Give the backbone structure.
Amino acid sequence: MSREIKFRVWSEDQKTYNYKFPYNYIGDFYVSSRGKVFSDFGNTIVPEVRQEAFVVEQHTGLKDKNGKEIYEGDIVKFKGIKPTFMVGYSELCTKFWAKCKGGLVEEFEDWSEEEVEVIGNIHENPELLGGGK
């Protein structure tokens, strides 16, 4: 089964996924195959000058029990498991994982969409992982 490859982009400067800049649509980015971030400025697509100011997060291909899409950087909880987990991606193993503060890892292949719920993300809700904001 194939999955749609999608990304979302977090702006470190504006602290939002809905990056605003004159001439482009809110949150409308293009990501190159090498992870470089481009914006649509009217009729021109240009690379963002400060690439380090953006965090590109890939869609896992799954939705949670409420139908919300799950991305890297999301904080999730699993049915019957107490800690919360952050979703990540291993390029070395080319798979998604979820890791809690204590080091326990849940592998992507083991997830059932009925058992997982997105409760936030690492940028807006880091306290959900047990740390401060």
